[in-house]
C-alpha cells in the first residue's frame, strides 16, 4: 500500500473515531457548556418562567445539613418540595429515607416518596413493600413510581407490571401516583393512553425547555445541581404550574 494511501486511511479512522466520540459522549451533554442567557442558581442555568422549584434526594446525597438547606427557601429560586427515595424492588429500602422524610416535614418542605421499579421483580410485591415503608400524611405529594429500565420485558409486559403497581398503590393511598421516567423511555415503552391519567414527572436534561408534547407536571431538568446543605450534586426540578396548583395535587 502506498504511504499516502496508508496515511489517508489512518486519517479517516481517526476522524471517524473523534466524530463518534463527539456524537455519543459530548453532544448529549453540550448544553452544560452553553452560555447561560437566563438566570443562574445552584450551579446551573435555571429554566425560565417557573415559580415552583424542588429537588430529589436519596442515600447518594449523604448527610443533609437541614439547617443550611432550609435557607434555600429564601433564594431567588426557592426550594418548595423534596422527593425522597424510599424503596427499590421488593425488599431494598433507602437507609436515609426515614430520617430525611421526617426532617423534610419538620423543616417545612412539601415532601414526597418514590419507589425505584425493578421490572424483573413481582410488581405486587414491590407495591406492598412501598406501602409498608411509606406512611403518607395530609399535605404530602402523591407516591411516585420511578421507571427507568425494561428488565428485558416486552413493552406490553412492562406496561402490565407498571399498571399493577400503580393500581395497588392508588387503592391504598386513595390518590393517583406520579409516574417518573425519561422523555425517551416514556415515548418508547410507556406511550399508552392508560398512563395519561397519572401526573407525569419527566426527566429531560441539557435542554432549554421540555420537548414532550403531552401533559406533564414535574420536570427534572438537571442532575448536576449544587445546593447549599447538600455536599454532592443533586437533581433539580420544577413544577409546571403555580404553588396553588401544586397544593391541589397533595394528599388530603
TrEMBL record:
The species this protein was found in: Bacteroides fluxus YIT 12057
Molecular function, one GO term: lysozyme activity
Keyword Mitochondrion set for record: no
CDD domains: GH25_YegX-like
Transmembrane segments: 6-25
Keyword terms, alphabetized: Glycosidase, Hydrolase, Membrane, Transmembrane, Transmembrane helix
A biological process term (GO) from this entry: peptidoglycan catabolic process
Protein name: Glycosyl hydrolase family 25
InterPro entries listed in its UniProt record: GH, Glyco_hydro_25, Glyco_hydro_fam25_subgr
Lineage: superkingdom: Bacteria
Entry similarity comment: Belongs to the glycosyl hydrolase 25 family.
